[in-house]
């Protein structure tokens, strides 16, 4: 079996840098607009907000929330790449061998994700997470007698878990473990290319099994920490699954889209409609799975109608002047109805064009999913969808693509000595 | 009416697949091939069209969805309105689980029943087994003999040159 090396031309790389440059320009323009008057991006904005007695959100807050949103989204895609490869190893899967280098390379973003996450938390932690404010935890003011009007007994009750040192420890441990397992599995995979033999394969299965246990726990806690704790008063036992489902389907869509783009550029010669079909089935199935989790969470809260739970959906459906109403329904439409109806037939999953449209839609849709998870709890009615959002997303996309494609070029696209390579080449569904 | 078949017996999957291609290319119509296990790619070489069962499944599922929604909206909204949990009579989120279940049920049952009808599977069905070894370790290719049209010795030759280990003739009562 022959090696296949991906070459990223200077032109392509320049496109990625151009993407970042456009992002930076848009971001700066957005910030200037907002700092200068604030009406450009969030319509009704100031007057009303001032009348309602609270300060409109500053541009720094909006910037930090956006950085956090994009970083959680792309870090999720990165770690799902490793998760997918690990699942394939543990399941002794043969079909995916030809495409396994792609999800593997997604994880190259992890160190950047770790850096950005720590950086944004240190700079903008107070803007994103309400629970990081110290005054919430003191029952009395400094004199020790006067009750503190800002004391929040609910948040204070969570202090054992939700406190900055423990939060940071968890974040660092998760990223350290993820990066460690990624390097370990990746090194094994590359050594297998060089030396051959089945010992690497068996070792990879053991590493993957260990990683899956780690991932099961860490991805759930990461979802609570990084997303759920924004709405500190609220809680949902489905939430970890919900974030995982969103990450997983985005990661699968990213993998599938990359396979198609590489194939259209003449790479991955041995990948055929059968492999695409299986990837398509994964995307199809997990967009339904996401909907299933979404609905399970929604219906229980809707049915019980307990104020402390239903506030979350009220904020998104009718609250905040109906700002999020369209995104709420758009989220279901683009992440469920569209992939469900379009990818239903066998032919749609075997044709590149259909898969390409659907995976792009899913990637955009799940960005909005995270937008909907984070914005109402931080920006309230002041959230926007303008230059700042698009600019930040473009910068992250550019950085992600540079690290991802650089990771792809580091090894042969075909894992030449994988024991199941032959099976994958003859895969037939 | 009796029908006469020529049976080519094969003992190798790959030989069988090339044989099917060659024999069909030579203009001989293959009645059917019997195999102890599903052979990958045999549908393509035999020229069998893809099943249209998924279309049936889609419409049965659509029926299930509409039936479930109609049933719940009519029952709980019009025929016998009840207040449950302080919700409106017709509240869609509460209907979704039942709708989902009925969609799956109708799609699955519709598909299985259609399959039984289309392939004429019924308790009184009698199946001619051309060669019992096709349930063990041999592949059996059956070619119908048309009186006065089929050249038996040429057919015998064609099968043997394409790797058949045995060529038999069999008459079946239809």
From TrEMBL, chain A:
Top-level division of the source organism's lineage: Bacteria
Regions that span the bilayer: 16-36, 72-94, 106-125, 167-185, 205-227, 239-262, 282-304, 324-343, 355-373, 385-404
Coiled coil: none
Keyword tags: Membrane, Transmembrane, Transmembrane helix
PANTHER family attached to this UniProt entry: PTHR43044, QUINOL:CYTOCHROME C OXIDOREDUCTASE QUINONE-BINDING SUBUNIT 2
Name of the protein in question: Quinol:cytochrome C oxidoreductase
Natural source organism: Pontibacter aydingkolensis
UniProtKB/TrEMBL annotation, chain B:
Residues spanning the membrane: 55-74, 94-118
Keyword Amino-acid biosynthesis: no
Any one Pfam family match given in the protein's UniProt record, by short name: ActD
The organism's place on the tree of life at top rank: Bacteria
UniProt keyword annotations, A-Z: Membrane, Transmembrane, Transmembrane helix
PANTHER family assigned: LIPOPROTEIN-RELATED, QUINOL:CYTOCHROME C OXIDOREDUCTASE MEMBRANE PROTEIN
Name of protein: DUF3341 domain-containing protein
Organism field: Pontibacter aydingkolensis
């Amino acid at each position: 079996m022959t090696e296949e090396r991906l070459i990223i031309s200077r032109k392509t790389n320049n496109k990625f840098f151009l993407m970042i440059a456009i992002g930076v320009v848009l971001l700066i323009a957005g910030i200037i607009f907002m700092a200068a008057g604030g009406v450009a991006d969030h319509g009704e904005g100031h007057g009303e907000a001032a009348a309602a007695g609270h300060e409109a959100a500053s541009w720094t807050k909006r910037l930090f929330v956006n950085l956090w949103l994009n970083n959680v989204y792309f870090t999720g895609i990165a770690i799902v790449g490793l998760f997918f490869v690990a699942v394939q190893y543990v399941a002794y899967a043969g079909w995916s061998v030809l495409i396994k280098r792609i999800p593997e390379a997604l994880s190259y973003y992890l160190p950047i994700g770790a850096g950005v996450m720590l950086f944004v938390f240190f700079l903008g932690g107070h803007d994103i997470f309400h629970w990081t404010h110290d005054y919430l935890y003191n029952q009395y003011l400094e004199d020790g007698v006067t009750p503190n009007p800002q004391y929040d007994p609910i948040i204070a009750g969570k202090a054992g878990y939700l406190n900055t040192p423990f939060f940071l420890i968890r974040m660092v441990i998760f990223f350290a473990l993820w990066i460690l397992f990624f390097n370990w599995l990746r090194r094994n995979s590359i050594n297998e290319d060089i030396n051959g033999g089945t010992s690497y394969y068996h070792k990879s299965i053991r590493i993957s099994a260990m990683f899956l246990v780690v991932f099961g726990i860490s991805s759930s806690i990461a979802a609570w920490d990084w997303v759920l704790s924004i709405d500190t008063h609220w809680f949902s036992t489905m939430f970890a699954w919900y974030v995982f489902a969103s990450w997983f389907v985005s990661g699968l869509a990213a993998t599938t889209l990359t396979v198609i783009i590489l194939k259209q550029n003449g790479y991955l010669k041995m990948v055929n409609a059968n492999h695409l079909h299986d990837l398509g089935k994964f995307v199809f199935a997990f967009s339904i799975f996401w909907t299933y989790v979404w609905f399970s969470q929604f219906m229980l809260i809707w049915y019980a109608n307990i104020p402390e739970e239903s506030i979350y959906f009220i904020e998104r459906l009718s609250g905040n002047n109906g700002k999020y109403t369209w995104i709420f329904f758009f989220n279901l439409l683009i992440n469920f109805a569209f992939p469900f109806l379009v990818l239903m037939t066998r032919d749609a999953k075997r044709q590149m064009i259909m898969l390409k449209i659907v995976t792009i839609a899913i990637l955009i849709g799940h960005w909005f999913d995270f937008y909907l998870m984070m914005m109402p709890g931080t920006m309230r009615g002041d959230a926007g969808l303008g230059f700042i959002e698009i600019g930040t997303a473009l910068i992250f996309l550019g950085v992600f693509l540079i690290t991802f494609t650089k990771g792809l070029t580091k090894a042969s696209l075909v894992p030449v000595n994988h024991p199941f390579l032959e099976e994958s080449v003859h895969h037939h569904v | 009416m009796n029908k006469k078949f020529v049976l080519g017996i094969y003992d190798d999957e790959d030989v069988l697949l090339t044989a099917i291609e060659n024999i069909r290319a030579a203009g001989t119509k293959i009645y059917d091939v019997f195999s102890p296990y599903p052979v990958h790619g045999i549908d393509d070489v035999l020229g069998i069209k893809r099943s249209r069962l998924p279309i049936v499944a889609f419409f049965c599922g659509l029926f299930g969805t509409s039936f479930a929604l109609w049933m719940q909206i009519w029952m709980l909204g019009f025929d016998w309105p009840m207040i449950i949990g302080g919700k409106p009579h017709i509240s869609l989120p509460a209907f979704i689980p039942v709708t989902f279940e009925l969609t799956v049920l109708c799609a699955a049952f519709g598909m299985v029943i259609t399959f039984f009808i289309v392939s004429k599977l019924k308790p009184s069905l009698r199946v001619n087994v051309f060669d019992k070894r096709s349930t063990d370790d041999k592949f059996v290719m059956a070619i119908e003999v048309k009186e006065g049209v089929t050249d038996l010795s040429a057919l015998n030759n064609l099968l043997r040159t394409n790797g058949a280990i045995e060529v038999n003739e069999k008459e079946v009562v239809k």
